[in-house]
What we know:
The chain is built from four helices and 13 strands. It is mostly beta strands. Strand 2 (about 30-35) and strand 3 form a beta hairpin.
Amino acid sequence: MAAIKQLAAVTRSGTGKGAARSVRREGRVPAVIYGGGEVPEPISVEFKDINKLIYAGHFLTTIFELDIAGRTERVLPRDYQLDVVTDKPVHVDFLRLRAGSRVRIGVPVHVVNREASPGLKRGGTVNLVLHSLELLVPADAIPDSVTIDLTGLDFHDSVHIKDLKLPEGARPADTTSNYTIITIVPPTTYQEDPAAVAAAAAAAPAKSAAPAKAAAPAKGAAPAKGAAPAKGAAPAKAAAKPAAKK
Length: 246
């Protein structure tokens, strides 16, 4: 079950952009609590507290008990907005949690026993198709994560939602399909066994050597004495006769 954390808050009377800016100038972050069959309640929380909690991780899956002027309100963060320039929180939405109610929430997926997966031992990798699962869970028993055991998984093996044993009281938000969560992917290149490669090379017959081609005469070179003129070549001109003596 997710741990319950404490957070101080105060009510705020004004709503709208002007009132929100005034709250931020005081070093606080405007927020609202809604749900539970009651009207939304505007509140504010300390900037330094909420900023630290958001960037610590798992903020949207953590249950908080808000202390509002001595009154305790159990809530779950449903959304928050960050400044587009500074990435600082500027608003938070909290959902009231009532006993017996259920909430739809994304629960992180964790994998264990990697060393017991034959596929991973042979160089494969885990393809995490879904990093979190959308589940319907009791409001007072939100799980920290869903664990998947990789023991015995080989290349191309997959784990689907219906293969999992979910935490007590949890069920998939989508019950219409048996979607894939992870698969074991083989490496893109295999390392062949050296002994098998050597045996295959020894068994293959040697290729007969092709006869060497006769070398062509160099361009412009005179043909050897007695050799027939090349096909299409013009006959050599006869030598000029000596001039007659006068």
